[in-house]
Design a protein that fits this description.
This protein is of the alpha/beta class. The protein has 21 helices and 22 strands. Strands 10, 13, 15, 16, 17, 19, 20 and 21 form an eight-stranded mixed beta sheet that branches. Helix 5 links the parallel strand 5 and strand 6.
């Protein structure tokens, strides 16, 4: 009687063993396949990176320039590149670009810098200005910079303007369109979908919630946005005009002037760019190659001109297994706060209230750290998470460690909240900051669901029980949320007043959710000095009375396994080609709509209260 069950049991166990063995074999085959591919790639003589004499460094930047990369699984990245799959949102570290240009400046083998920027995405004027400072230092040594392109976007052209020569393809495109701040508005769509929005805000200029309550930008938001956009555009025009040696009036800002110039050259955009002194020569791909070969010679390892690209040159500067920071040296710690501020623990590339506070705590508890620079590149986010981070900044100061805030492209709303308590605040002239305001936003779907015949009903012990997006928000709950938002705004302006030596009335007059450029924020007293990260580091060292110190970028500590995988596969991917997706204007609009709707989904403040600047993105 028992033989049949035992037989089934043996068959099942045998089948399970086969499955388990097959699983292990497949995993091992994949692992060893990757390992063999990695070993082959680093041992292949053809992949040996050599910097020849009289070389050009090709600054071929792919993707967005960022202060901190989003966390990516190194194995996944390796496999994507090994299989030739495109990276959806490629990123380049600003620090890597600076490192490469600085090294090339003093590298006697590098005589020329070729700016090949066709795959550089919009990365912000502040970051472009930091890179341009290094380009000027490179030129100051007597070395040449040549910018080549079939087309130039506005950000790309800003960097190209720092070249000794700009070469554009005869069929190329170069029209500078200025800066704009345009958003999608959903009021009518929300009404048609029978969605009920509940909006709570403080601040005449706090326009983050306008897309859900209007179909257009309010006059107040237009007034505020136009002011800081003009500041950035003036900075752009002034610097480009200086580099190109023409007057600021050379910029064509109305259609009539531009059309008349284009009519004079029969609509030839490239010829217009040449006539208008935007570029120096028109050269096809073949002409560019021939000219660079004549200047630099032909490479010993290929049939092109003597050169090395950005990623290869960077890989010669990076150690495969970087040494941990020295334990006996006084340090200025750098903590990067980049991205939207969310509650809890978040991956690099996004600010987490808990995770970013932990990095600050790590710096506070390290006896070798004598001062901290908080590098902020954020439009804000969760008010609760911002406060968690601010408390850690205060604890650092109480521990006797000066804190200097260094603002990048953005330090608005929550980005300003976490910067305000610093001993000193540095911003670039083109930083987008301020937006001192607060709002609450939630939506309910009871009317939309009723059209489908779906209803919510029940009982509870209090008026507040059973809150759900499927039920309307009661008047009492609405009042409670508005009171919380009002208190949040009062807390915000109090925080600024106490730390900036201002009265509440003075802060309120320049707050109200209004956005400012870094230059204007300096005039208003919201920042102390105009300068970059290096200036902030030197100021932090001065405040801590340091003369001999190292800098230490505080990052989440990786396990030995994660560190091994990151270094092994990070080095391997440096040897593989990169690619980038180019989106059409329609695809970009769809992507923007998707991004804005997803924004609502991942905002996770426990009280649904946010200090976030949603109009700070520049088109």
């Amino acid at each position: 009687m028992d033989e049949k069950p035992n037989l089934f049991k043996r068959i099942f166990l045998s089948f399970f063993r086969v499955i388990n063995i097959s699983r292990k074999v497949i995993i091992n085959l994949i692992f060893f396949g990757i390992l063999i591919l990695f070993i082959a790639s680093i041992s292949n003589d053809k992949n040996t990176i050599i910097v020849e004499n009289n070389s050009a460094l090709i600054l071929d930047l792919n993707g967005d320039v960022v202060e901190q990369k989003q966390q990516v699984d190194p194995i996944e990245a390796f496999m994507n590149e090994a299989l030739g799959q495109q990276e959806e949102n490629p990123e380049i570290l600003l620090a890597d670009i600076i490192k490469v240009i600085k090294s090339a400046t003093t590298d006697n083998r590098i005589t020329t810098l070729v700016l090949k920027l066709d795959k550089l995405n919009r990365s912000g004027l502040t970051k472009m200005s930091i890179i341009s400072d290094e380009l000027e230092a490179f030129k100051a040594t007597g070395k040449q910079i040549i910018a080549i392109g079939e087309n130039f976007t506005q950000d790309q052209y800003y960097l190209a303007s720092y070249a000794n020569e700009i070469w554009l393809d005869p069929n190329g495109w170069l029209i500078l369109d200025g800066y704009g701040s345009y958003q999608l508005y959903y009021k009518s769509a929300i009404e048609k979908l029978a969605i009920t929005p509940y909006i709570f805000r403080v601040g005449t200029y706090k326009s983050a919630v306008e897309p859900y309550m209007r179909d257009d930008m309010s006059p107040q938001a237009k007034e505020a946005n136009q002011l800081w956009l003009n500041d950035l555009w003036t900075h752009y025009k002034t610097n480009v005009a200086t580099q190109r040696g023409f007057d600021i009036s050379n910029f064509d800002e109305n259609a009539e002037t531009l059309i008349s110039k284009l009519e004079a050259v029969n609509g030839d955009i490239a010829q217009y760019a040449l006539n208008n002194s935007w570029v120096d020569e028109l050269k096809s791909r073949h002409d560019v190659e021939t000219s660079l070969k004549a200047r630099l010679g032909v490479s010993d390892t290929s049939d092109t001109y003597t050169s090395i690209n950005f990623r290869d040159y960077l890989s010669t500067l990076n150690l495969a297994f970087p040494m941990p920071h020295a334990v006996k040296t006084d340090k200025v710690a750098i903590v990067v706060a980049k991205g939207t501020i969310l509650n809890g623990t978040q991956k690099p590339g996004t600010i987490g209230g808990d995770s970013t506070a932990k990095l600050l705590q790590q710096a506070r508890e390290d006896d070798n750290v004598k001062a901290v620079v908080l590098r902020v590149d954020s439009p804000g986010g969760s008010a609760f998470a911002s406060e968690i981070i601010r408390q850690e900044v205060e604890l650092l100061k109480q521990a006797g460690k000066p804190v200097v805030a260094s603002m990048g492209t953005y330090a608005a709303s929550g980005g300003y909240w976490i910067s305000a308590p610093a001993d000193k605040i540095y911003a670039a002239p083109t930083t987008i900051t301020g937006s001192i305001g607060i709002f609450g936003l939630m939506m309910t779907f009871e009317n939309a669901l009723s059209k489908l015949g779906v209803f919510t009903d029940g009982v509870g012990t209090t008026e507040f029980a059973g809150f759900s997006p499927t039920r309307p928000l009661s008047e009492g709950v609405s009042k409670i949320i508005q009171m919380n938002v009002n208190k949040g705004y009062q807390d915000f302006i109090t925080l600024v007043a106490e730390n900036r030596n201002m009265t509440l009335e003075q802060v309120d007059a320049i707050a109200q959710g209004r956005v400012w450029s870094g230059a204007k924020a300096k005039e208003l007293g919201l920042v102390d000095e105009l300068g970059g990260l290096e200036d902030a580091i030197n100021e932090a060292a001065t405040l801590a009375k340091l003369t001999d110190f190292d800098t230490w970028l505080v990052e989440k500590e990786l396990s030995p396994k994660d560190l091994f995988m990151k270094n092994v596969f990070g080095q391997a991917t440096a040897l593989l080609p990169t690619s980038i997706i180019s989106l059409s204007p329609l695809e970009k609009s769809i992507a923007k709509l998707k991004s804005e709707l997803e924004h609502l989904n991942y905002l996770n403040d426990p009280k649904s209260t946010y200090t976030l600047c949603m109009s700070c993105e520049i088109d």
